[in-house]
Amino acid sequence: MTKVLIVEDETRLAHWVQAFFEKDGFETVLAHDGQSGLRLALTEMPDLVVLDIMLPKMDGMTICTRLRRESDVPIIMVTAKDKEAERIKGLNIGADDYVTKPFSPAELVARAKALLRRTRGQARQLLTADDLELDISAQICSLNGETVSLTPTQFKILETLMRHPNQVLSREQILEKAFTDGLDLLDRTIDAHIRRIRKQIEADPKNPVFIQSVYGSGYKFIG
Ligand code: CA
């Protein structure tokens, strides 16, 4: 399910927008102030963020700047009417699109879908970290130029981790992101797959440098 984070302090507007996204099959997360907006953007791993500019605790521009240091998540900014400078600044600091208030939630959802199509089409096809390389279109993993054999499931798990470098992903998040088609994997089977992936890509699987375990939380790819 595609998850959208809506950061908007006007509660009624937030719920209205939320209803439109949910009607269209999106999963939604709401934040009513800037601080929790940034925190949820980093922990909930949304597929898209709708970001108001004027927010209590931390404004949308600051959130956008901070978020861009760690994430490529598509961002749609919600700006005030007649504030061209605001829109330009937003786009310059990494927002992907904007709507101006007052906006139609139906249009916002349509823009969100268009943006997701665009950014998904551009998803990087070659992921690298040191001498580890993952060629997504060819489905080939190589280490130091030597092909490493991974099952499709392991490949998908590694791809998911590599697309979110230096972020802790819970087992549940890995499952959710890697297997959108609802493959029936159990949380703990993730551990078994990770062990096998480590055997293939880590020089010393007991002291992994690529895939680190984060006690009580999940896994983090260092890249
Ligand atoms: Ca606001």
Molecular structure report:
By secondary structure, this protein is an alpha/beta fold. It folds into 2 domains: 119 residues, 3-Layer(aba) Sandwich (Rossmann fold), CATH 3.40.50; 96 residues, Winged helix-like DNA-binding domain superfamily/Winged helix DNA-binding domain (Arc Repressor Mutant, subunit A), CATH 1.10.10.10. It is built from 8 helices and 12 strands. It has a 5-stranded parallel beta sheet with strand order 2-1-3-4-5, with helices on both faces. Strand 4, helix 4 and strand 5 form a beta-alpha-beta unit. Helix 6 packs across helix 8 and helix 7 packs across helix 8. The mean pLDDT is 91. Bound molecules: calcium ion.
State the CATH superfamily name of the largest domain: Response regulator
Query: How much β-strand is present in the residues?
Result: 15-25%
Enumerate the distinct ligands.
Answer: calcium ion
Q: What number of domains? A: 2
User: Could you say which overall geometry the principal axes of the C-alpha atoms support?
Assistant: elongated
The rounded distance between the terminal residues' Cα atoms is 27 Å
The largest β sheet comes out as:
5 strands, parallel
Order of helices and strands: EHEHEHEHEHEEEEHEHHEE
**pLDDT below 50 for ≥5 consecutive residues: which ranges?**
none
Enumerate the strands of the largest sheet in spatial order, edge to edge or round the barrel: 2-1-3-4-5
- Please give the CATH architecture of the largest domain: 3-Layer(aba) Sandwich
Look up the CATH topology of the largest domain: Rossmann fold
Helical element count? 8
Using DSSP, what is the number of strands?
12
Bin the helical content.
Answer: 40-55%
CATH top level assignment of the largest domain: Alpha Beta
Instruction: Give the rounded overall mean pLDDT.
Output: 91
Structural class: alpha/beta
Could you tell me the radius of gyration in angstroms? 19 Å
